[in-house]
Amino acid sequence: VQLVESGGGLVQPGGSLRLSCAASGFTFRDHAMGWFRQAPGKERTFVAAISTSGVFAQYADSVKGRFTVARLNADNTIYLQMNSLKPEDTAVYYCAADRRTGPPRRSEHEYDHWGQGTQVTVST
User: Fold this and answer.
1) How far apart are CA 109 and CA 115, in angstroms?
2) How far apart are CA 69 and CA 81, in angstroms?
3) SS3 per residue for 15-42
4) Average pLDDT per block of 10 residues along the chain, 124 residues long
């Protein structure tokens, strides 16, 4: 199983980034997927998750209305579109594969495969 994130970088407040996560080594369409983040000195927290079909999604309150999660099962890829970025969005962002099929879930304990992370820095 391999999850590879890309698309991170440095962006000014108010800017946008799109993260991608390419999956391989498992049946991608059978697993809900999630995005989590970890800021320096803090615990990893839930950002967004999406169901196997891509129809249902969940978001952390802190990103609702600014971030959008999507997936393309034909390409084994999940995306996180991040708009109106704030300095407090600075973190390493991880994608993860839920161990089960079905609806999106918030707890990191439900995910058993993780990417290596991509750094997002929001600063002037």
Assistant:
1) 15
2) 6
3) CCEEEEEEEECCCHHHCCEEEEEECCCC
4) 97 98 96 97 97 96 98 98 98 96 92 97 97
Reduced to 3 states, what is the DSSP secondary structure of residue 7? Answer: coil
Q: CA-to-CA distance for 81 and 18, rounded, in angstroms?
A: 4
Distance CA 72, CA 108 (A): 22
Are residues 3 and 15 in contact, defined by beta-carbon separation less than 8 angstroms? no
User: How far apart, in whole angstroms, are the C-alpha atoms of residue 68 and residue 57?
Assistant: 9
Between CA 57 and CA 70 the distance in angstroms is: 8
CA distance 13 to 118: 18
Binning the chain into helix, strand and coil, the percentages to the nearest 5 are 10, 50, 40
Kindly give the pairing relationship between strand 2-6 and strand 57-59.
unpaired
What are 37's two structure tokens? 């983040």
Residue holding tokens 């600075």? 90
Residue 18 has which token pair? 């799109």
- First-last CA distance in the chain: 37
